[in-house]
Structure formats: structure tokens, C-alpha cells
Amino acid sequence: MLDDNKKIIYTMRKQKPYYYGADMKKISFKMVMLIIIAAALLALSVMSVYIVEKDEQAVITQFGRYVRTEEPGLHMLIPYAERHINVPVKKILKQEFGYKSKSDNPNADFYRGKRELQEARMLSADMKIIQIEWIVQYKITDPKKYIFNVNNPIKTFRDLATIAMSQIAGDYLFDEIITIAKSDIVFKMQRLLEAMIADVDMGVSITTIQLMNVTPPQEVEAAYNEVLQAQQEKDKIVNEAKMEYNRKVIPVEGEAQRMIAQAEGYEAQRVKVAEGEAKYFESLYSEYIKAPDVTKKRMYLETISEILPKLEDITIIDENQKNLLPFLPLQSGSQTKGGK
Amino acid sequence: MNDPKEAVKEFKKQHGKNVTLAVILLAAIAVFLIMFSPFYILQETELAVITQFGRVRTSQTNAGLHLKVPAIDKVNILPKKILEWDGEVKQFPTYDKRMILVDAIARWRISNPELFFESLTNINNALARLDDILDAASRQVVSQHQFESLVRDSNRINNLDDKTMALLLQQGFSEEDLTHFPQLEVGRSVLASEMRKTVVADLNNMGIEIVNFYIKKINYIDDNLKSVFDSMIAERKKIAQTYRSEGDNYREKKFGEIDKRTKEIMAEAQMKSRLIMGEADAKAASIYNDAYNKNASTRDFYEFMKKMEMYKKIPDTATLVISTDSEFFDLFKKYK
After folding, report:
1. Complex prediction ipTM
2. Do A126 and B153 lie within an 8 Å CB cutoff?
3. CB A216 within 8 A of CB A130
4. Rounded CA gap, A11 and B19, in Å?
5. What is the spatial distance between Cα A185 and Cα A214, in angstroms, rounded to a whole number?
6. B281 Cβ partners below 8 Å, 6+ apart?
7. How far apart are CA B318 and CA B24, in angstroms?
8. pTM over the 0.90 mark
């Protein structure tokens, strides 16, 4: 198709060479000039307009020299002489140390390569090795300083943050870092890092520092877990012993109370019995006193007559008989019993 | 003649000379402008040292459009920003003869462009010199201090507050573990500023200002790592053992307490019950006394009564030998 069209054009030229060429020359000179000027103007106007996004500021240089900072919106500059560099000033930027999140999703997996593990490795004040992973969130507060003052600002920032962390970790004991000192460390870290940043005047300010993960190195993790296990074992033993205490002591307390209650019962019974017997005696005595001899005799005889019929062996001896022995062999009943 | 290539050739034959001429002319103008331009542009991040035939004439640190002598002045552009020096991790011995890995890092800038240009000319040369000077400085300072001073920054751990102490003791550390830390005279940040001090003058003579000089990290050399891990493991094992022993200790104490407590409770109960019973017996006795011990007559009657009661309790199997002069059987012998 295209080849066909070209063929037609060349055919036309061939047929009317003069006409065609003269025509073109006349039109092209004015037109080309116009088109060139229009295009140049268009290009200039396009080049002189730029946009600053809503979370940015633009730093404008004129022949390389800083002239102004522009806020978000549509702006003009002088093409060629002026340049704009857009800097995200309102965005909170984040640097991760000791790990890399695979995406912006905070729940996504983390990546820890050799470099990350090395970065997280710190020495504690008791000369132990500890892995500290943390983040620093920051904002660019002065775009001019940020882009002009420091070569490679992100690397500088990361270096300073690492220096600060390693210095502060060096002042805390391993067990403090892993347990109670985290907020202390963050607080000190923020102050130290701010001072360090002020030294290089790089135009950023820190929003948040957060310790993400503080762990013993992999090589000793098993021993740390053993401590936890031992702790649980101890708790278990303690609880069991307490249980045993309750199991043994509480019943004994009951037993003690029972003993006391029994004693109290005994007391009640003993007193009542005594009172009863005393009353019985008193009433008997009040009768006896009326005729003591008769009563005594009666009681004696009554008693004897009650006992005697029940007894199996009774031996009555004469008071003048001095030797008892001759009588004894006759007592067959008691001997038979004693032999058994 | 139908071939478009032929048409182009035709055109070139007619206008070729003019086109070549125009191109050469434009190039010549460009070369002239570049070589003989009286202007140069300096960015905010740059500075320039102006040389004439290799000799430094002047320097320019302000950004913008500047004038120069065309063709004669040479503009040497250098960075004005703060630059980094990230030294390699080096193995240095400390004062207490321990080999450690030191990762030092510095930030620097060109403070005197003319001096810098004369002595070092460009950044690569400067970095090479910095390697020498800064490595030497860190080696020297490291060799003059003990390992602890390089890791720790203060004597904070020598003065732990009570709360921390209590927690650590609870974690299985002994009082002794927590008080043996060496007292430092200087710490890490002081060493860093010492390191910086030793190089300031030298670098100043080369037109370099050292903005900061830090020990980024201290690490054990690989040969020592294993023994560090081993001692960490040993310490944890000790702590684990402490927990286990504490558990056993608690159990034994508790069992002892159980024994003691049960005995105590029983003894006390026995004592109380004895007291109560004794009191009961005393009360009973006093009641009996009140009744039986009024006078000789009651005593006599009581005795008599009790005897009678006892007689009744003589078992059936008993053998009774009675004399005939007893009150009951006296009549056996003779009737009075």
C-alpha cells in the first residue's frame, strides 16, 4: 500500500517536474519558518511550565545557583537558565535496619540476608552479641539543605543511624536491651541522632524510631530457649509444691479442729456427768444422814447379796485358821481356768 | 529513475557541498564558544578551582554563572557537598591485645579549594590519602585503649538503678555478675573525637575539613566469635540451672514447711485439747469435791459408797476368799 502511494507521487513528479517543484518551494519556505517558530514557542512554553505535587516542594536554581523554593501547584521557570528539583517534603520516609520488608504491606514477610544480619549485629555493654532490628522514620524539613549539603543523603542518614544505635547499645547490658531498656534506648537514640544530623546540616528531622526485633544471635538461641524452659519448669515446681502444701496442711487443720471439738465435747460430758453424780450423791447422802448406820448396813448387805450369787468360786475360811494352803487344792474350778 | 534512492543521490549531488559546509561551520562555532566562552556555570553542589596552565589562579565557591578568561582559564569542578569516607572494616589490636574488627567512617568536605587542588587535585586522590590517614588514626587510637572503651560510651552499667538491678537479679544474675564491670576513663564517643583530633591538622593542610569521624561498629573477629557464643551459651545454661535449682529449693522448703506446719498444727491442737480436757477434769473434780468433801460425814459416806460400787464390779470369775470374821459371814461362826 505504502509503496503504491510512493509510486504515484514519483509518477506525478516525473510527469510535471517543474510545476510541482516550484509550488513546493513557494509554500515550504513560509510554512516551514512558521512551523519552526510555532514549534519553538510551543516547546519553550512547555519547558517553562512544571508541576509541584501536593507532598513536594521544588528547589529552583538559576545557572546552578539556588534562587527560590516553590510550593505545590503549577509553576513557571525560564527554560535553560532555570531548573527545578522536586523534593518530597511532606512524605514520611522510612529506613529499615537489619531487615527488609518485601513490600509496603506491614504484614508481609521480612527478608534478612547476610548484609542485614551483619547490620543488626551489635555489641552490648557486657560484650555480648545482640541482633537489633529497628526503623527510623523521618521527614525532609529543608529541601535545599537536603539536596545540596550532603552527598548521598540516604547513605549518610543510614550510617548515622547505625553509629547512634551501636553507640547506645554499647551502653546497655544485653539483658536490659532484650527486656526493659527499649524505650530508654529509643529516647536516647532520638536525641543522639538528631544531634548528629544537626552536625551535617542535612535538612531532615526524625519522626519516630522503633525497635522492631531484638534477639540473641541464632548461634545461641537454643540456650536462651532453655532458660525460658527452665523458668517454666521452676514455675511448675513452685505451683506443684503450693498445691502439695494445700493438699497436706488444710486437712491437718481440719483434724486439729476436730481434736479440739472432741476435747470440748469431753469437757461438756465430763462436767455434766460430774454434776449428775454429785447430785446423785447429794440426794443419797441426804437420805443417809437421817440414819447413817442402818443405811450403811443395808447398802453393804445389798451389795454382797448381789455379788455373791454371781461368783463362781467362793472360799470361806475360818479366821483362826492360819494357813491358807491346805484349802487351795480343793478349788478345781479356778485351776482348770488358770491352766487354759 | 523510479528508485527513491536515486532521487536522494540526485539531491545530494546538487546540494551536498552546502550541507557539509553548514555542518562544519556550526561545529566550529560550538568549539569556539566552548573554548573561548567567557562564562561557566557552577551548581550549588560544586565549587571550582580556576587554573591557568596548571597554576591555581583563584577559586569560586558560589553557585551561578561566572566569568573566566576564555581559552586561558581552566575551570576544575570539585564537589562542595559533605562527602563520605567509608573505610574498609579493619582488624586492629586493642591495648589489652585483643584483635577486633573496627568499622570507622567519616564525613568530610573541601574547606580550602585552592589548597585541596594543589595538594590532591581530585577526589580519588583525596580518598586514597584519607584511607591512609584515617586508617592510621583509628589504628593508633584503638591500640591505646582497651576493648571495653571502644564498645561502651559511659559508665552507665557501673551505676545501675535499683529497678534495673532488681530485674536483672530476678533474671538469674548474681550480685557479683553485676558489679564486676570495669570502670572506664573514656568511652567510644571520646575515642572518636580523639581520632578526629589526630587527623584535623594534617587534613587541614590539604584543604580538607573533617566534619565527623565515628567508629561505626566494633565486632569480634571470626576466630573469636565461637568463644563469645560459647560463653553466652554457658551463661544461659548457668541461669537455666539457677532456675531449676531455685525450683528444687522451693519445693524442698515447701515440703519442709508442710512437715513443720502439720506438726505444729497437730501439737497445738493436742495442747489445746489437753488443756480443755484438763480443765474439764478439774471442773469435774471440783464438782465432786463440792459434793463429797463437805465434811467428815460426807467423805465417809462417799468412801463407803464407792467401795460398794467397786464390789459390784468384781468379775464373776474371781475367786473370793472370805474370812468368817467379815461382817457378812460373821454369823457363819457364831451368832452373836
Report:
1. 0.73
2. no
3. yes
4. 28
5. 12
6. A270
7. 163
8. no
